[in-house]
Amino acid sequence: MISKPTRLFFATVFLCAAAHASTVFNFDSDGLGTATGFTDKVNGISATFSSTGDPGGFVVYQSIFETLTGNVLGDPGPAGLDNLALTINFSNNLAAVVLDFATADFGTPSPFTLNAYQNSKLVGSATSTGEFLNGFTFPEGEISFSGATFNELVLSSTSMDFAVDNISVISAAPEPAAGVLLAGGVMILLGIFVSNKQ
């Protein structure tokens, strides 16, 4: 049988993990036709989407893809420009990101690149190539980055246009709620331990 202090410890760890869970930006709450620049806020983290083609370099539209579902953000937007990079500025420092993408290719899939910045300084990058999925027109893929703290992403492709969705980020430092829960859990465990010793 698991002791009461052990049960309390695992409950505290679970609550801290839940408070530190990823935040997903999926554009499903944005109206169709919403164009860059705009800001979305999820779980206390703001993400501002912009491009060199603003206003209207990228636009929210209904998905025509398999892995990108609901609403997606893609170009060309109302500005009608191609070959744009998408910049995402976050209100918090982040430790990791993973997102879905699709490129506008009918032949060989084009590389998709993610550059991560911390206060305008490049801290890392990743490149991925999508795959054509059965029954769908454009190649789709997933790209991720971790290993350095960042607060800005620049997404680009050698393809003329691309779309993104399901941008899942994890904060670089525990949220205050997680710290409070962990500290409270430790205090409870110490109290139980001391009372059991007396």
Explain what this protein looks like in three dimensions.
With about 200 residues, the protein is an alpha+beta fold. It has 2 domains: about 45 residues; about 150 residues, Sandwich (Jelly Rolls). The protein is about 20% helix and about 45% strand. It is built from 2 helices and 10 strands, in the order H-E-E-E-E-E-E-E-E-E-E-H. Strands 1, 2, 3, 4, 5, 6, 7, 8, 9 and 10 form a 10-stranded antiparallel beta sheet that branches.
What count of structural domains? Answer: 2
Second-tier CATH architecture of the largest domain: Sandwich
Mean pLDDT reading: 84
The biggest beta sheet is recorded as: 10 strands, antiparallel
Percent of residues in helices comes to: 10-25%
Stated plainly, the CATH topology of the largest domain is called Jelly Rolls
Q: Which radius of gyration do the C-alpha atoms yield?
A: 21 Å
Individual helix count:
2
Question: What structural category do the secondary elements indicate?
Answer: alpha+beta
Instruction: Please mark out the parts with pLDDT under 50 across 5 or more consecutive residues, or reply none.
Output: 1-19
- N-to-C SSE series? HEEEEEEEEEEH
